[in-house]
Specification:
The protein is of the alpha+beta class and about 220 residues long. It has one domain: mRNA Triphosphatase Cet1, Chain A. It has 7 helices and 10 strands. An 8-stranded antiparallel beta barrel has the order 1-6-5-4-3-7-8-10, surrounded by 5 helices. A hairpin with a 2-residue loop joins strand 8 and strand 9. The longest helix has 14 residues.
Length: about 220
């Protein structure tokens, strides 16, 4: 598990259009893009009986951790365990087949026990048993993504973010304010000046934005 720096910014649509045009010149489009320089994502988040993931974020705890199943537009899915300490993140990933994915969602302990040799399955299994961890909510969105492979840099724009309840997938709520986009900058060691100057030219302020937490606010009517 390798760590990386992850910076987030909430930007307006006009700045997104300008920056997107510039990045198309400086960087490559993510090779997994299907259309409009990006792809759709769906993330199923898990939380425990104490809503630890939610309230840690609400209380401003600097160290966060979360389990989620991320499903890509091509149908592939993976279990992720992500930790974040201020702007430093780490992520463990386990590719899932449909059987194991369904076992996690339905908390099929018999099937999960058969896979305890996989570290992430063992970790979430313990959480399910001890803290009643279970599915919490879904977040869907479109991600426009650019990469600079030489320095392992990813810059993404997340748009059209929707949240919905695990038990009623027909009612979805928009998470972002109109004409707002989430800009994310991710790098491991270096952030070249020629990209940095373009991305930070507007002097946007980094924010501790959580799609999960903002989605939870919408679902619980605590959002603005």
């Amino acid at each position: 598990m390798e760590s990386r720096v992850e910076l987030k910014f909430l930007i307006n649509y006009e700045d997104y259009i300008q920056l997107s045009r510039q990045l198309k010149i400086l960087m490559d489009v993510d090779p997994h893009a299907t259309k409009d320089n990006g792809y759709h994502l769906s993330s199923l988040y898990f939380d425990d009986m104490y809503d630890s993931g939610t309230y840690d974020k609400a209380d401003g705890v600097e160290f966060h951790r979360k389990f989620r199943i991320r499903t890509y537009e091509n149908g592939k899915s993976q279990l992720e365990y992500k930790t974040k300490n201020q702007n430093i993140t780490t992520k463990d990933i386990l590719p899932l087949d449909k059987i194991l994915e369904e076992a996690l969602i339905k908390r099929d302990f018999k099937k999960l026990k058969e896979n305890l040799d996989k570290t992430l399955i063992k970790q979430i299994f313990v959480k399910m048993k001890l803290n009643n961890m279970k599915q919490a909510l879904y977040i869907d969105y479109f991600r426009e993504a650019y990469v600079f492979l030489k320095d392992d840099i990813r810059i993404t724009f997340d748009k059209d973010i929707l949240v919905y309840n695990c038990y009623n997938k027909n009612i979805k709520y928009k998470v972002l304010e109109p004409r707002k986009v989430i800009l994310e900058v991710k790098y491991r060691k270096t952030f070249p000046d020629f990209i940095r100057k373009v991305v930070l030219s507007k002097k946007h302020i980094t924010i501790p934005y959580s799609k999960y937490f903002m989605g939870w606010l919408k679902l619980t009517n605590r959002g603005v």
